[in-house]
Amino acid sequence: MAYSRAVLSMYDLPMWETIRDRRWSLQRCDKCGQYRYPPAPNCPNCLSFESTWQPLSGRGTILSWVVFHRQYLPEYPAPYNVVAVQLAEGPIVISNLIGEEPQGSWIGRGVRICYEADAEGNLLPKMELAETEA
Ligand SMILES: [Zn+2]
Fold this sequence. Notes:
By secondary structure, the protein is mainly beta.
């Protein structure tokens, strides 16, 4: 696995291996059940060091979004969007919405995790609008 531009810690690596397998998983605390993101040695809720990697359901909700019109990195030509998504399991993650540009008041819209390879072939977790809307 390359992920050459990412700085991986011993806690991040297992997560990226699950992403590579298209089964994004996060640590779930064995004591209190809280999902942990980013990966860390102990639970921020109860401080337990015991956890189990659990695949995510793939469901989430847009909390916020923005479209960048200025290019900061060669890998991200403008315009590009960034979405903050609350996963069904609780953690908030930052990603990109694939397929459509966010618009209007899309806060609260359902999304699901999908995967897209970067220029180096590394899979990255992305979001796409869920087919069914409440
Ligand atoms: Zn805990």
